[in-house]
Amino acid sequence: xxxxxxxxxxxxxxxxxxxxxxxxxxxxxxxxxxxxxxxxxxxxxxxxxxxxxxxxxxxxxxxxxxxxxxxxxxxxxxxxxxxxxxxxxxxxxxxxxxxxxxxxxxxxxxxxxxxxxxxxxxxxxxxxxxxxxxxxxxxxxxxxxxxxxxxxxxxxxxxxxxxxxxxxxxxxxxxxxxxxxxxxxx
Length: 186
Known about the structure:
By secondary structure, this protein is an alpha+beta fold. It has helices spanning 9-13, 42-50, 157-164, and strands at residues 22-26, 29-32, 64-67, 83-88, 92-97, 140-143, 153-155, 178-181. A five-stranded mixed beta sheet has the order 3-2-1-4-5, with no helix packed on it. The protein has a three-stranded antiparallel beta sheet with strand order 7-6-8.
C-alpha cells in the first residue's frame, strides 16, 4: 500500500512509533492513514480550503484525498525525481523521491512485496555533543542564554541541570533564555 515510514527520530520523541497518523502528498492527492488510532491531518487543510471557495483557485483545484492503506504503490501516478511530501507526528515532514521504477522480475527482485518501496538513501543524522562536557550527546539547546559559552548552546541533561536548575527546588536558577529539546540535524 501507499504507506511508507522509514526510521525517524521524531517517532521516538513525539507520539511514539505506535502513532499511525500521517499522509503522503503525491501529485495533488493526500494519501492519509485513516483508522481508529490515527488523526486525519488533512481535515484542517480541507476545512481551510472549503472556506471562501478557496478550492476554486487554480493552485488548489483538483486536490483530493485517498486512503493510504487502500492504495498500492503501483496505482500511483509518480514522476521520477520529483520530491513528494511525507508528513507524520504532527509536523515532521520528509521529502520522498522515487528515483527508479521497473516491472517486477521474480528472477532479479526480492520475493515479497514487503521489501518495497526500497530505501536506497537516507540522510545521515548529525548528533551534536554537549558544549560543556564535550563527551555526551546533547539533549537540550538554549538560545539567548547569558551564562552559555555560545548561542545557540547544546547541552546534555547533566550539564544543563547543573548550570540551570536549583537542586533543592527543581526550578530554574535564572530566566531570560529559551530552552528547546534537541532532536537531531540532517
